[in-house]
Design goal:
The chain has 353 residues and is of the alpha+beta class. It is 38% helix and 26% strand. Helix 3 runs parallel beside helix 4. The longest helix has 24 residues. The protein starts with a helix and ends in a 15-residue tail after the last helix. The structure holds adenosine-5'-triphosphate and magnesium ion.
Length: 353
Amino acid sequence: MGIFNNFFGKFSRDMGIDLGTANTLVYVKDKGIIINEPSVVAVNTRNDQILAVGEEAQKMIGKTPAHIVASRPLVDGVISDFEITEKMLKYFIDKVHRESFSILPRPRIVIGIPLGVTEVERKAVEDACLSAGAREVFLIEEPMAAAIGARMPIQEATGSMVVDIGGGTTEIAVISLGGVITWKSIRIAGDELDKNIIQYARDHFNLLLGDRTAEVIKLKIGSAFSSEDPLTTTMRGRDLITGLPKEVEVNSNHVREAISRSLRQIIENIKSTIEITPPELVADIFERGIVLTGGGALLNNLDKLINRETKIPVHITDDPLTAVARGTGIVLDDLEALKEVLADSVDANTFKN
Ligand SMILES: Nc1ncnc2c1ncn2[C@@H]1O[C@H](COP(=O)(O)OP(=O)(O)OP(=O)(O)O)[C@@H](O)[C@H]1O
Ligand SMILES: [Mg+2]
């Protein structure tokens, strides 16, 4: 540390990153969230060149010729393709740096990791940041970052329950005094709901849907409750019998039926997390309610369904898609006061001395 670091610290573009299965967000000190793009990379496999990252690459999914692959380098919240993840991070970090003076020192990065990941998976995130240009990396468990972003009183002696429903994972955590007390992490979240819709269309209409189409249907008319006056939309895909294009009218009750099993699994895991939580903290949760973060929190009526099943008040945080990134930003701005909430680093020298 010392004067040198303090001096440059004032000018460096330190960053908080939410490296999500579906979306990557970058918070920059004093600027806010300046990158918010899908975690997708398009690569030309003939020469291993990156053709597009983020928004632009997402448009190519399912529409590429044989030598181009548009894919998501994270699966279920963890890095599945290290090289591509590193390139994606480097692209986003360079994009931030391009807008500032090139003499700036390399940034410090606070980045979220899912709960319960292995040492190898943690190290992969750390290494990806370092080789993408970070000078120092601080890991934080995603639900902790989400709770901080949602301004929950995580450092107090009170139980705060956060449920972060992302693309790949749903992370359920009870936090008190700056630490995660009880938690569950399951690989059922937004992507799984899309898969449920694809399966439903196949089973009920012999209709093959693309991933993106299924997601759009979920965003348009998805609901956790059935309704007497459901919204409708058209699903377009390929008829599995004739092989020709086909469209079918569906409503939100169909979608609810398709996703209900997954929603039930999410709720069962919320309940079982409460079951293993010490009673004093459970009392706090009853009083303060469960806070939902992540894009999945935006599914219509999901808050009401969770409330009905658990009998606990449920609140959706403002702008749930950015909660983790905002949380990493808050930690970045006050690293000294909040270092106790950071996850243990793989390289113990990075912070503990
Ligand atoms: N209005 C909405 N209704 C239902 N689902 C939504 C809505 N908006 C976004 N989503 C879903 O939220 C998910 C993305 O959320 P988010 O960006 O929090 O995930 P992530 O952080 O990238 O993933 P993870 O945390 O699992 O690594 C996607 O599955 C998307 O379909
Ligand atoms: Mg997330």
